Amino acid sequence: MKKMLACAVLAMVVCALLLSACGKKDPGVQFWHAMGGPLGDTLDVLVAEFNRTHPGSDIRSIGNANYEALSQKIMGAVAAGQPPVLAQVYEAWTAELIENGSVEPLTEYLRGPSGLTAEELADFLPGMIENNTWDGVLYSVPFNKSVRALYWNKDLFAAAGLDRAPATWDEYMEYAGRLTMDLDGDGGVDQWGTAGRIDAWMFQNLLLQNGGSILTPDGTAAAFDRPEGVAALEFMVKLLTEYGKVTSGYEYQNDFQAGKVGMIEGSTVSLSFMHGKYAFQMATAPLPAGTQRGCLVAGTNVAIFADAPRKHKDAAWQFVKWFTSPEITARWAAATGYAPVRMSAMDLPVMTRRFEEVEGWREVFDQFEFAGYEPRATGWYAGRKTLEETGVESALRKHKTPGEALAAAAAAVNAALAAR
Amino acid sequence: MADAAVKAAEAGAGGAARAAGARAAAGHRARRAARRVWVYALLWLGIVIMVMPFLWMVTTSLKSPIEILTFPPTWIPTGQFVRGADGEWREVYVASRDGRAGTAVVRPAEGGPAMTVPLDELHNRVRFRFGNYAAAWRQAPFARYYLNTVFVVLCTLAGQLVTSCLAAYAFARMRFPGRDAVFLLFLSMMMVPEPVYLVPSYIILAKFGWIDTYQAMIVPWLAYIFSIFLLRQHFKTIPNDLYDAAIIDGCSRFAFLWRIVLPLSKATLAAVSIFTVVSTWNSFLWPLVMTNTPSVRPLQVGLARFAQEQGTNHELMMAAAVFSIAPLVVAYFMAQKQIIQSLATSGIKG
C-alpha cells in the first residue's frame, strides 16, 4: 500500500515536471469553431496556410466538437469577459451578442485600408450580406454555408427504368414509388424510394418550395401553419411514410450509402462525409420544385468579439477577409461541400473541376439564386426545435394530422416569441 | 417358502425405500442441476450483453467504411474479392446484386470502371484492416492526449481520496450543528445535471485565469459528492466500541481515521478509486469546454474529432476508442481480484 502510494506520488511529480516544462503560452488569436472530421482537417490546413503566408499572424484554430458545446463556451466566455477573438456564430446567437454589445461592428473594417469594395460585397452569394447585417451594420461574415441537395443512386434509378433526378414534387413522389421494391419477394419492402430524418430542415425547405414562409414578415408570429405549410407537411409525411425510411438521426444517410435507398435529401457537406463510403454511382441534383423552387441556407457565420485587443481584432479581420476571398472560399468549398460564399468562386478551376467530378453539383449551388434564410429572431433557435418536435415529429409518427401538428407547434412558437 | 416370501417382501420394501431415497436424492440433484443451468444461462446472458458492445467496437475498428454500412452486419471483418486473369485476388465493392440474373455490379477497391461478374465468382475473404489504427492515431496528437489524461486522472484521484475520507469521516462520526442539513445539501447537488453548472463554472475558472490549464480539469473535481457519500455509508458501519477503545488508549481523531478506519475500508476505497478513475477518464464535456489546446486536452476530446453531426468515421472512431480504453482494460485485468472483492463489499455494481 505504502509502496504503491509512493510510486503514484513519484509518477505524478515526474508527470507534472514533464508537462510544465512544455510551458504556458500566449493565447494567440483564438478562433473557436465546431468543425470536426474532414471539415476540421481542411480548416486546420487553411489556418496554417494563412499563418505561413501572413508573417506575424497567429490564428489558433480551436475545435469544440459541436455547436451545442460551442454555444455554451461562448456564453460562458462572454459572461466572464474573456471571449475569443473570432468564433463561428449562428444569426440567432449574433442577435443576442449584439444586444449585450459583445460583437464588434465591422463597418470600420469594411471601409478601412484593407476593407472590401462595393463590387466585392456584391460578389457574395445573394442575401448573405443582408443576413449578417442588423440595422444597417454588418456584424458577421458568412463562413460555412450549405443548402440541401438531392443525392441519387444512379444504379438503382437505372434498375427502375429512371435516368434522371426528379425535378418536381409530382416526379419526386412518383420516382420514390417506383424505387420502392420488394427485391427478394418475401412480401416486405427491402429497397426504399427515399429516406429522411425527423427534422425541421426538410419541412422548411418544402415550405419554401410551396410558397410558404416560416414566420410572418415582421417576425412576430408563426406562418408555417398556413395552408402552404400544411400541404408541405402532408407531402413530406406521404413521401417518407409510404416510400421512405424514417430515422431519428443521420442513419438514413447510412442506408442510402449501403445502396438500400434510391435518393435522399442531405446537406451539401454530407458529400464529404459520404466520400468513399459507397460502391454505386452517385449523382446530385437540386431539390425538386413545388409550386416554385426554393431552398433554405444553413450553416454559420463568423463574428469578431469587441473585448479582444485591437491588434488581435485586426488579425482576425485579415483572416476573415482572406478566408472569404474567391480563391480560398473555392478551395474550402471543394474540400468540404460547403458553398463558396463568393459568386466569382464558382468559375475558378478548383470549383469547375469539382463540378466535373460530381454530377449535378453546379446545379445544386445554383439554388442560391432563390435561397431563403431562417428567421434571425433570438427565439427561433428554440422555435425550430418546437417545430421539429411538436410539428414534424408528431405528424411523421402519425400522432396528429399535419394540420393539427402545425397548429400546435405554431401556438407554442407564438407564445415563446411573445414572451421575449 | 413362507420365510423366503417374507424375506423377499422385506427385501422388496427395503429396496423400495432405498430406491425412493435414491430417487429423492436424484430429484434433488436434478433440481440443483436445473437451477445451476438457469444460473449459468443468466450469467452467460449477462456476459453476452456486457461483451457484445466491446466485440462490436473491435470488429468495427477492423472494417472498411463500406462494410460497416452493409446489411446484414458481419462479425468478422470480410471483404469481397474476385480472382483476376493473373490468378491474383482483387478486392471489389459490390454496387448492386441481381439475384435473378445471378450477377453483381462491382467496382474495384483500388478504383477503376465497374464490372459485372457472376455471383459465384464473388468470394468472401476475411480481411482485418489494422491500418485503421495507424490512420486514427495520425489524426490527432494522441500521445499527448494520453499523457494529459493519465496526469489529470492521477491528480484527481489523489485529491479526491484525501477530501472524501476527511469529509466522510466528519459526516459519519462527528457531531456538529447542521451536519445532516449540510449532508442533504451535498446529496441534492448530485442531482444537478452538468450542462446547468457548466457556464457558471466556466465563468469562475475564467476569472481565476485557469481556462486551458490542468487546474481547470483537476481542482473543481478534487471533492466529489458521490465518493463522500459512499465512504460515509461505510464509515457508519464501523462500531463505536472501536472508537471508544481507541480514545481511551489515547488515540487522536486523525490517528483513529488513519490507523483504524482506513485500513478497515480498503475495499470501499478501492471502489471509490475505480469510480473516480473511470469517470475522470471518460469525462468529455467539461474538458472540452474548459480547454482549448491539444497540449492540455484529454483523450475523450480527441475522440470527438471523428464524430460530426452529418456523419461519423466509424472505423477510425472505433479504432481510437479501442486504444483509448485499452489502458483501463489492462488495469482492470491486473487488479481484477481486488476490484471484484471491493465491489462485492461495497454492494454496488459498475
Produce a short descriptive summary:
Chain A has 420 residues and is α/β, with parallel strands linked by helices. In chain A, 48% of the residues lie in helices and 15% in strands. Chain A has a five-stranded mixed beta sheet with strand order 2-1-3-13-6. A five-stranded mixed beta sheet of chain A has the order 9-8-10-7-11.
Can you offer a commentary on this structure?
The complex is a heterodimer of chains A (420) and B (350). With 420 residues, chain A is an alpha/beta fold. Chain A has helices at residues 2-21, 37-53, 67-79, 91-99, 107-111, 118-122, 128-131, 154-159, 169-179, 200-209, 227-242, 251-257, 270-274, 310-323, 326-336, 349-357, 361-366, 380-396, 402-419; strands spanning 29-33, 59-63, 86-89, 133-134, 137-138, 140-146, 148-153, 192-197, 244-247, 261-267, 282-285, 295-296, 298-304, 371-372. Chain A is 48% helix and 15% strand. In chain A, the strands form four sheets. A five-stranded mixed sheet of chain A has the order 2-1-3-13-6. In chain A, strands 9-8-10-7-11 form a five-stranded mixed sheet. In chain A, helix 2 runs antiparallel to helix 15 (326-336), helix 9 (169-179) runs parallel beside helix 11 (227-242) and helix 18 (380-396) packs antiparallel against helix 19. The termini of chain A are far apart. With 350 residues, chain B is an alpha+beta fold. In chain B, the strands form two sheets. Chain B has a five-stranded antiparallel sheet with strand order 4-3-2-1-5, with no helix packed on it. Chain B has a two-stranded antiparallel sheet with strand order 6-7. The N and C termini of chain B lie far apart (74 Å). The mean pLDDT of chain B is 86. Chains A and B meet through helix 1, helix 2, strand 2, helix 3 and helix 8 of A and strand 2, strand 3, helix 4, helix 6 and helix 12 of B.
